[in-house]
């Protein structure tokens, strides 16, 4: 019975959070400039409701409401910060080859390998080093975040070789971020090789999309 009360309380608060933070007209379009702030608030409210209900065993409904309020406030702040960071990065980089996506809880800056490295190389081209230093300067301005640098390849060639190349390219990008002032403890590097494609490896266009380095900015 207690479990049902906890679940019901959390579910009720989640519905309330959804109703309060979303505009039905914005769900069918991307026109809402505060969409990611609202997304963060909703996620924070749902998480906070669950934690609050568990923490307040004597009154799970009250605990859920309190947790939801705190979670929504924190999630909204994160979403708002990411909206601001994404806008600043787009203006600062002004590079059509680099994409910046705000998922609501993190920023994903994607740099295609074709404009970053020569074929079969992990030395960052001079033209891209200036853009990466701008990213580093941005990260220094926003110190309350962790950074993942993730290397990817297409499926051409030996899988083990591709894995190593993705790791070396991720490390090369991370080195430039560190030289730009981002502290070592904030950065982790990951080589995915050919294991996480975002497009088909059966076409040249798809392979080009899969060859990339992602800089993932995750607020603390």
Characteristic terms for this protein:
OMP_bac; single chain; 60s Ribosomal Protein L30, Chain: A; Outer membrane protein OmpA; alpha+beta; 220 residues; Bact_OuterMem_StrucFunc; Gly-zipper; 8 helices
What would you say this structure looks like, in words?
The protein has 220 residues and is α+β, with helices and mostly antiparallel strands. The chain has two domains: 35-84, no CATH class; 96-219, 60s Ribosomal Protein L30, Chain: A, CATH 3.30.1330.60. The chain is built from eight helices and five strands; from the N terminus they run H-H-H-H-E-E-H-H-E-H-E-H-E. It has helices at residues 2-21, 24-27, 35-55, 60-93, 113-116, 126-141, 159-179, 204-210; strands at 99-102, 107-112, 145-152, 187-191, 212-219. The chain has a five-stranded mixed β-sheet with strand order 1-2-5-3-4. Strand 3, helix 7 (159-179) and strand 4 form a beta-alpha-beta unit. Helix 3 runs antiparallel to helix 4. It is globular, with a radius of gyration of 21 Å. Mean pLDDT is 81; it is low at 3-31.
- The CATH class of the largest domain: Alpha Beta
Shape: globular
The tally of structural domains comes to 2
Mean pLDDT: 81
Helix content: 55-70%
Topology:
Blueprint: H1 2-21, H2 24-27, H3 35-55, H4 60-93, E1 99-102, E2 107-112, H5 113-116, H6 126-141, E3 145-152, H7 159-179, E4 187-191, H8 204-210, E5 212-219
Helix pairs in contact: 1-3, 1-4, 3-4, 4-6, 6-7
Give a short overview.
It is found in: Cell outer membrane. By secondary structure, the chain is of the alpha+beta class.
């Amino acid at each position: 019975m207690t479990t049902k009360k906890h679940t019901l309380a959390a579910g009720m608060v989640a519905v309330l959070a959804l109703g309060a933070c979303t505009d039905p007209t914005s769900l069918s379009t991307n026109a809402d400039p505060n969409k990611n702030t609202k997304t963060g608030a909703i996620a924070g409210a749902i998480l906070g409701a669950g934690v609050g209900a568990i923490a307040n065993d004597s009154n799970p409904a009250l605990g859920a409401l309190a947790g939801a309020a705190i979670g929504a406030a924190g999630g909204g702040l994160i979403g708002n910060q990411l909206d601001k960071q994404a806008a600043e990065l787009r203006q600062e980089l002004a590079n059509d080859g680099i994409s910046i996506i705000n998922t609501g809880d993190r920023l994903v800056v994607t740099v295609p390998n074709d404009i970053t490295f020569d074929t079969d190389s992990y030395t960052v081209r001079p033209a891209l080093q200036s853009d990466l230093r701008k990213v580093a300067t941005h990260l220094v301005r926003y110190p309350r975040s962790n950074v993942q640098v993730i290397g990817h390849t297409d499926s051409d060639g030996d899988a083990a070789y591709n894995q190593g190349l993705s790791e070396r390219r991720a490390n090369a990008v991370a080195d430039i971020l560190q030289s730009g002032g981002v502290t070592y403890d904030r950065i982790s590097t990951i080589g995915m090789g050919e294991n996480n494609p975002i497009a088909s490896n059966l076409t040249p266009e798809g392979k080009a999309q899969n060859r990339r380095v992602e800089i993932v900015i995750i607020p603390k």
